[in-house]
Structure formats: structure tokens, C-alpha cells
Amino acid sequence: MARCAGAKPDGTPCERIVSASSEYCYAHDPTTAEARRRNASKGGKGNGRGRAAFEVRDIKRQVRELVGDVRAGRLNKGDAAVIGQLLNVALRALSVERAWHEADDLEARLDALETEDRAERLAESGDHWR
């Protein structure tokens, strides 16, 4: 079986098996560079992770302020407990949002792999009309 002609980031040869009609695997094929870039951008900053990290830092800041206000007597424990519960709800919402983004990323990667696999099977079968 033929191996990919590309190299890993550390310079060692790629070990992926490629179809007889291909020289490169999906990750190294110059003709799939644009699709890889699009898929990578879905997993990058554009997915709200930067915003989510900011929101987590903001919630942590609010919790620190809440603790300080309770200790200093500026806020009663009951009000602080309710605010803490609401901040916890916000954290859980961020967790759900992150899971959605991860699922989207995995779906895009799976689609790319399935497309590559279909192309390889067609190339190996010699049937280019399906």
C-alpha cells in the first residue's frame, strides 16, 4: 500500500496510507488546503471560545467580589447565595455552549474524513461515476 508523501510537523514522513491515485493524504494534499483551512477556522477563534474564556474570567471576578462583599458585610449571605446560584447557571450554559462547538468541530472533521474515504474507495475501485 502506498504511503503519503507528506511530512509530519517534526519532519518525519507521514505514515498514512493513500489510494493508488493519490500521492498525499487529506492532511498533506495541496488540493485540500482550502478545505482544511475552513475546517480549522471552525475550530478556532470564530467559534466563540475566546468570548467564553472572557466570560469565565468575568464570572470568576464576580465570585471573588461576591466573597469579598459577604466577608465585609456589604451583602447578606442569602442574596450572595442566590447570586452564586445564578453565576453557576451561567457557567453551566457556557459548558453546554462549549459542548456544542466541540460537536460542530467533530462533525466537520468527520465529514472531511468521510469525503476522503469515499474518494479513496472510488479511486481504488476504478468506478469514478458513483
State the strand order across the main sheet: 1-2
So what's the overall shape?
A: elongated
Tally the structural domains.
1
Rg calculated over all Cα atoms: 24 Å
Q: Structural class, please?
A: mainly alpha
End-to-end distance: 23 Å
Helix content: 55-70%
Regions with little confidence, pLDDT below 50 for 5+ residues: none
Averaged pLDDT: 84
As a percent range, the share of strand residues is under 5%
Q: Report the strand count.
A: 2
Tell me the series of helices and strands, N- to C-terminal: EEHHH
Treating each run of at least 4 consecutive H or I residues as one helix, how many helices? 3
Biggest pleated sheet: 2 strands, antiparallel
Can you describe this structure in just a few lines?
This protein has 130 residues and is mostly helical. Helices cover 64% and strands 3% of the residues.
How do the helices and strands line up, and which of them pair or pack?
Layout: E1 2-3, E2 17-18, H1 33-42, H2 49-72, H3 77-125
Antiparallel strand pairs: 1-2
Helix pairs in contact: 1-3, 2-3
Structure write-up:
By secondary structure, the protein is mainly α. The chain has one domain (34-125). The chain is 64% helix and 3% strand. It is built from three helices and two strands. The protein has a two-stranded antiparallel ribbon with strand order 1-2. The two termini are 23 Å apart.
